[in-house]
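lol forgot to send this yesterday, sorry. struct tokens for the thing we talked abt
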């Protein structure tokens, strides 16, 4: 199985790669930071299971998205495409820095949009595949101090729903994932001694399980929050 994962060097993306690191799989991993990506790949290879291939790219740049797509397609159409690349910048719509919305859209929406479009022809030809878009609870409701971030994640939700409608007759599944607070870099300064925030592995477990269903079943949406609610 060919598994494409963006934002794979740490956090949720790395946890997903760890979950799919199984014999017979080929993992095509992308991140902007080549050093962190090589470190993550090295840890995965120590388990000597999946074939691991890496590609460093800034997916906020459409040209680099297409280069990564070309790299992926050398192995054929992906069986799983996990659009996880994303970034959070705090701010309110009325006073955040000029250009912040464009930055959030470029990485949180357009990276998934362009990569998906680039690899879809092969998936459609095979009439198989599963696309996971890592959205956020900020896709579902206004998010405190997350104006443009929330807007971009609402857009990713819309992209996911339109894509699902378009592809369901072509044998391709689309799942939108809406995590609440997860212990990743965005929450690195948070004291989680009370286990208030979810683990990245919680998200990867849900994605893995959803990918294993029969061809006639799809989990359309995964909403997963800390047990005590959002922060």
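and heres what i got for the seq, position by position
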């Amino acid at each position: 199985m060919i598994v494409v994962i963006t934002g794979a060097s740490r956090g949720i993306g790395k946890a997903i790669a760890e979950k799919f690191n199984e014999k017979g799989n080929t993992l095509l991993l992308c991140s902007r930071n080549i050093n962190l990506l090589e470190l993550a790949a090295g840890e995965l290879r120590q388990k000597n299971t999946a074939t691991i291939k890496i590609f460093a790219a800034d997916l906020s740049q459409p040209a680099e998205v297409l280069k990564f797509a070309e790299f992926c397609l050398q192995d054929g159409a992906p069986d799983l495409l996990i659009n996880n690349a994303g970034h959070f910048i705090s701010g309110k719509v009325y006073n955040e820095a000029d250009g912040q919305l464009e930055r959030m859209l470029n990485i949180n929406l357009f990276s998934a949009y362009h990569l998906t479009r680039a690899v879809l022809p092969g998936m459609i030809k095979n009439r198989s595949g599963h696309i996971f878009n890592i959205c956020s609870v900020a896709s579902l409701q206004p998010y405190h101090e997350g104006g443009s971030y929330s807007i971009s994640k609402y857009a990713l939700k819309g992209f996911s729903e339109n894509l699902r409608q378009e592809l369901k007759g072509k044998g391709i599944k689309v799942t939108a994932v809406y995590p609440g607070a997860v212990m990743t870099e965005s929450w690195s300064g948070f004291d989680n001694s009370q286990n208030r925030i979810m683990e990245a592995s919680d998200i990867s477990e849900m994605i893995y399980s959803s990918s294993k269903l029969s061809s006639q079943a799809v989990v359309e949406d995964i909403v997963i929050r800390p047990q005590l609610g959002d922060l």
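The chain has a mean pLDDT of 95. anyway ping me if u want another try
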